[in-house]
Amino acid sequence: MHEQVVEIALGPKGAFENGSEGALKRRVTTDRVVNVAAKARRPAKPPKQPQPLRVVELLRKAQEWRRQLDAGDVRTQAEIARREGITRARVTQIMALMRLAPEIQDLILSLPAMERGPVITERALRPIARVETSTAQELIFRQLLEERTAYRGGHLATNDDSAASLHSRQA
Question: Least packed by Cβ within 10 Å: which of 23, 66, 88, 143?
C-alpha cells in the first residue's frame, strides 16, 4: 500500500493563484490510477409526456370489436380473443364497457391524456356496467368522479363539456 497525495483546486479557475490548494490523501495500491474528476452526471430525464388513458383505449377497442361483431367480420368473442392473444374472459371484461350509459362512454372518450395515473380505471367501471338503468349508472359514476377527483384537486378536465352536462343533468 502506498500513500498518494493528490492536489486539487476547489473553485473557479484562478481562484487559488495565491498557492492555497486543497489536498486529498488516499491510501491506494501503486498500480492503481486515482481519478479525482467528478463522475459525469447523466443528462436529466425529459419530462413525462401525457399518455392516453388505458380506459379510453379499452373503450375504443370494445367499440371496434362490437362493430366487427355486428358487421360479421368476426363471429364470436372467442375469435377476437384468439386474434388479440388474450383470454375470452378478458374480452368479456372489455366488452362490458359497452353496457355503460352512452353519456358515460362519451365522457370517458373525451378524457385527456394524463401525466399521472388515471382518475377513472376500467376496473372501477366494471360494477357500474353491471347496473341495469342508465340513470343509476350515471348517479354511481358521478359519485365515483367526486371521490376520485377530491384528492386530485377536485377538477377533471375533459376535451368537451360532457362532464358538465352529466353533472347538470344529475343535479
Answer: 23
pLDDT average, residue stretch 12-18? 59
Sequence-distant (6+) residues with CB within 8 A of 145 are 119, 120, 156, 163
Give residue 46's pLDDT band: very low, low, confident or very high (50, 70, 90): confident
Closest CA to 105 of 56, 34, 40, 151: 56
What pLDDT does residue 156 have? 53
Q: Structural domains in the chain?
A: 1-35 (no CATH), 54-170 (1.10.10)
Provide the b/e sequence for 117-138 (b: ≥16 CB within 10 Å): ebbbebeebeebbebeeeeebb
Q: What is the DSSP string of 89-134?
A: HHHHHHHGGGGS-HHHHHHHHTPPPBSS--SS-HHHHHHHHT-S-H
pTM flag (> 0.70): no
Helix (H, G, I), strand (E, B) or coil at 22: strand
